[in-house]
Design brief:
Low-confidence stretches: 1-22
Mean pLDDT: 86
Distance between the termini: 35 Å
Strand content: 25-35%
Helix content: 25-40%
Strand order of the largest sheet: 4-5-6-9-8-7
Largest sheet: 6 strands, antiparallel
Radius of gyration: 21 Å
CATH superfamily of the largest domain: Chorismate lyase-like
CATH topology of the largest domain: Chorismate lyase
Number of domains: 2
Number of strands: 10
Order of helices and strands: HHHEEHEEHEEHHEHEEE
CATH architecture of the largest domain: 3-Layer(aba) Sandwich
Number of helices: 8
Shape: globular
Length: 258
């Protein structure tokens, strides 16, 4: 049987959960799905080293080349990280390169760095209709809303407003956010078991409304960059709606198209 067209995988030993329906998908895609299920279930946690390609090939009963192709795609999607001479690890939001993958504001001069965060508000509330739809919540389900200002050297640069599913983030408070020195996504990953995998964004230019202008210390009507983000975890499950207003006087919004 051609190893690239088999329609079902049967792990040779205990491993990630049995594959979901994978009929007619290429074999390496099925292996990719099995590894992803292991990541999603917590079998391999952020920062853990996963088994070698040879071990995974034996576990799944496929060739090492098939496993390598699956791992290559997961690394390209930032779910795994290859470290020369050490092995392959589950990507974590504690790694600097992962932090800057989601924080796209870059100084016009100098190296990227993480800004200081001031929490203005964190509370449970009913989701606005558009947020509820985006997060695929049922009517009346609560959300956690967070409002914060990000600053460099005390100078505001971003006004963020976030909505998170209340069921996933029980116990998240302003005090907890303020006490944490970790980036937001790192906190979500380590304390709430929710890993941000990818995001869709819409970017447009807007004029600063008076209330937003006061928080960002700019004149009303000043030009801002509006970034609306929908963030997903494993299984393409939406877990965050974020609306940010960016000052781009000394910074720019950097993105790589790959």
């Amino acid at each position: 049987m051609n190893s690239d067209t088999r329609s079902a995988i049967h792990p040779a030993s205990a491993g990630p959960p049995t594959a979901r329906s994978a009929t007619f998908s290429p074999l390496y895609q099925q292996i990719k799905g099995l590894i992803t299920q292991g990541l999603e279930s917590g079998q391999w946690k952020p920062g853990d080293m996963i088994p070698s390609e040879i071990e995974l090939a034996g576990r799944f009963g496929v060739s090492q080349g098939t496993v390598r192709k699956a791992v290559d795609e997961l690394a390209a999607e930032h779910l795994l990280v290859r470290r020369q001479g050490k092995g392959t690890f589950v990507a974590s939001h504690t790694e600097p390169r992962t932090q800057f993958r989601f924080l796209r504001l870059t100084p016009n001069q100098g190296e990227p760095r993480y800004p200081e965060s001031t929490i203005l508000e964190c509370k449970r509330a009913r989701a606005p209709a558009d947020v509820s739809r985006a997060l695929e919540l049922k009517a009346g389900e609560p959300v956690i809303t967070i409002k914060r200002v990000l600053a460099f050297d005390g100078v505001p640069c971003v006004l963020d407003e976030l909505w998170l599913p209340g069921g996933l983030f029980k116990g998240l408070t302003a005090e907890r956010l303020t006490e944490s020195k970790a980036p937001l996504y790192s906190l979500f990953e380590s304390e709430f078991g929710t890993k941000m995998i990818r995001a869709d964004e819409q970017v447009r230019a807007v004029a600063a409304a008076p209330a937003d202008a006061r928080l960002l210390r700019v004149a009303p009507g000043s030009p801002l960059l509006s970034v609306e983000r929908l963030t997903y975890t494993y299984g393409d499950k939406p877990v965050e709606v974020r609306k940010g207003l960016y000052i781009t006087r000394d910074y720019h919004y950097h993105n790589e198209l790959i």
